[in-house]
Write a structure and sequence with these properties.
The chain is mainly α. 75% of the residues lie in helices and 0% in strands. It has a domain of 174 residues.
Length: 259
């Protein structure tokens, strides 16, 4: 029955069958790729890498989980996350490597099926006009639809498989971005930049400027370190008027003594 279905479809069946073979190979290859990634996924290792915990380096290096590989690259160079981002981009490109070709093959197969149907209908009308037997027209039109049916049989799995694989790629990209963002936040909190104390507010700095060594200044700006050498005590300054009065009284006393 299948052989008869293909033979009655005409020559347009040949390229559609070729597209079906290529599409089947691509679908099987992508299915094996995602099954292998699912089998080698390691959420415990990914969580440990995200939390900056101590992990077995050999185990992390052997991991085939794309999320773990990206997080390991980020752990090795926490000051420069560009290599980790490049690795993530390469992994995502590999995950969607054959998807454009799969969509193209599905579109070509459906187009060839429609073209075969149009050509079959045209030949059926020409045969009916030449022979004048309308009873054969229905059979000819039924046979002409075989190419469209086969083209849709190839197109639907290509479309569904491509959509499913694209969804898996998007989920992987989201997981990588989410865990990498969490690791970046932890590195900012625990890295060298976290040891630098924040600057005090502008109002506190202005109020504590003249009395930097007092307890009030230390309470308002806890990050400021106390001075190593205590400030020298201020010397009392004699006002000019007081000094002049003292000199006048000393001169009067000396004059009285002379008299």
């Amino acid at each position: 029955m299948v052989w008869r279905f293909v033979v009655e479809g005409g020559w347009a069946m040949v390229p559609i069958l070729a597209c079906s073979v290529v599409a089947l190979a691509l679908l099987l290859e992508r299915t094996w790729y995602w099954l292998e990634l699912w089998w080698h996924r390691d959420p415990e290792l990914a969580a440990a890498l995200e939390r900056l915990e101590a992990v077995d380096r050999a185990r992390a290096a052997r991991s085939r989980d794309p999320v773990c590989r990206v997080l390991l690259a980020a752990r090795e160079r926490p000051d420069d996350l560009a290599p980790a981002a490049q690795l993530a981009e390469r992994l995502l490109e590999n995950s969607r490597a054959t998807l454009p070709l799969l969509h193209v093959i599905g579109g070509v197969a459906s187009t060839l099926g429609l073209f075969g149907t149009v050509l079959g209908v045209s030949l059926a009308f020409e045969h009916t006009i030449a022979t004048g037997r309308l009873s054969e027209l229905a059979g000819s039109l039924s046979v002409a639809l075989n190419t469209t049916m086969l083209g849709l049989i190839v197109y639907v799995p290509c479309y569904l498989g491509g959509s499913l694989f694209q969804m898996l790629t998007n989920r992987t990209a989201f997981a990588i971005e989410q865990r990498l963002g969490a690791m970046r936040a932890r590195l900012r909190r625990t890295g060298p930049l976290a040891a630098v104390p924040p600057l005090p507010p502008a109002g506190v700095a202005a109020a504590s400027g003249p009395v930097a060594g007092t307890a009030a200044a230390r309470e308002s700006a806890p990050t400021a370190s106390p001075p190593l050498v205590p400030p020298a005590p201020e010397r009392p300054q004699v006002q000019p008027a007081t000094a002049a009065a003292g000199r006048g009284r000393s001169s009067e006393a000396s004059g009285g003594c002379n008299r």
